[in-house]
Write a structure and sequence with these properties.
The protein is α+β, with helices and mostly antiparallel strands. It is 20% helix and 29% strand. It is built from 5 helices and 10 strands.
């Protein structure tokens, strides 16, 4: 009696991995001026739903905010608002123009002098800004790199990064302009320390690092 031969079912060939497009080189990007970007907003090409901003002439999507970012931002806003005198304004996720770099980022927080009606008809520009704060997790590399260069080039006197990756607050001071703008001084504050809040050379108070990080007080 012939012996039955078992045949294994043929496996379908593995799907080929999709080809990924090569990364774009900076020279292949179309760069916009601040005036062109503002015009696209004015005529409705770009709106709030687009969640984008202009960075070094390139329109980019803004990073979404996760839960730790939202929590830290809420704690920080509460403490900053209590500390600021009435003649200062705290702006959150609002545009500020940097003409030197053709940029219009929307920092997590920035502080300007008042009055309340100061920006009824005009947008803030770099020269108006006394302090910028970014809450950073997935955006840490950008906030330490490209964004730091934009803020230093705009001569922002103090730039703070609430670093949720390393659980520290990085404070950058002494901006230097030129072809490679940067800050000449950096001070880190860890849990157990407090960050001084300085505006126009005067210290208004301080905020404990533990009070604003996720899981803090």
């Amino acid at each position: 009696m012939p012996t039955a031969t078992l045949r294994r079912p043929k496996r379908a060939p593995a799907a080929a991995a999709p080809d990924r497009p090569p990364p774009l080189s900076p020279d292949s990007l179309h760069r916009f001026t601040l005036a062109e970007y503002q015009r696209m907003i004015d005529i409705g090409v770009l709106g709030e739903k687009d969640r984008c901003h202009l960075i070094n002439g390139v329109i980019r999507k803004k990073m979404p905010q996760n839960t730790p970012h939202l929590s830290t931002g809420a704690k920080l806003a509460k403490r900053l608002q209590r500390m600021l005198p009435d003649d200062f304004l705290l702006l959150t996720d609002k545009p500020v123009q940097f003409p030197n770099s053709e940029s219009e980022p929307e920092p997590d927080f920035f502080v300007t002098a008042g009055p309340d009606t100061r920006f009824d008809r005009v947008k803030p520009v770099a020269a108006d800004v006394l302090l910028v704060i970014e809450v950073s997790d997935t955006s840490l590399a950008s906030d330490r790199g490209e964004m730091l260069g934009i803020y230093a080039g705009g001569k922002i006197a103090e730039y703070c990064i609430v670093n949720l990756v390393d659980n520290i607050v990085e404070v950058y001071t002494k901006p230097r302009g030129g072809r490679t703008p940067t800050y000449r001084a950096r001070t880190d504050y860890a849990v157990g320390e407090s960050v001084p809040v300085v505006l126009g050379g005067a210290q208004l108070g301080s905020i404990a690092v533990a009070d604003i990080l996720p899981g803090g007080n």
